[in-house]
Amino acid sequence: MEGTYQMPFQSVAMWEKRLGTPIPGSHVFVAEHEGRVVGSAGLFPFGSSPRLRHQMGFGISVHPELQGQGVGHALLTAVTSLADDYLGLERVVLEVYVDNDRARALYERFGFVHEGTQRMVALRRGTYVDGHQMARLRPR
């Protein structure tokens, strides 16, 4: 979970519960390899306001051993297809650590652009780190 905003050392049971009971209105994809979960990605609503229904937040996590092997690409392909072709979302938003170059490059390949930087957004190994906010508008 080093490259994500998730807490480290969470139990398998916690992840099974989280993935098995998603937030209402969210959409979650799971990647499996040799019978085990190696990644997940999802779209999450920004509350219940009708004024925000055109956009959703995005989160992704890929097991460190399989990063760079196409898992993230496959998950992003599924998520962006769902967002564009079935949910009609106009905007998908994410946050990424400023030093996570590999993830930022992947997001950019899918049309996400940098919209701003949040200073001291998360505590990681005892130090506050900055995060970029990125968003993707639905292609026309």
Instruction: Give helix and strand order, one letter per element, not per position.
Output: HEEEHEHEE
Q: How many E strands?
A: 6
Count the domains: 1
Unreliable spans: none
User: Radius of gyration in whole Å, from Cα?
Assistant: 15 Å
The 3D shape can be described as globular
> What level of helicity do the residues show?
10-25%
Largest sheet: 6 strands, mixed
CATH architecture: 3-Layer(aba) Sandwich
Which CATH first-tier class would you pick? Alpha Beta
For the residues shown, what is the average pLDDT? 89
Strand content: 35-45%
Strand numbers in spatial order across the main sheet: 1-2-3-4-6-5
Briefly note the structural class of the backbone: alpha+beta
CATH homologous superfamily label: Gcn5-related N-acetyltransferase (GNAT)
Multimerization status: single chain
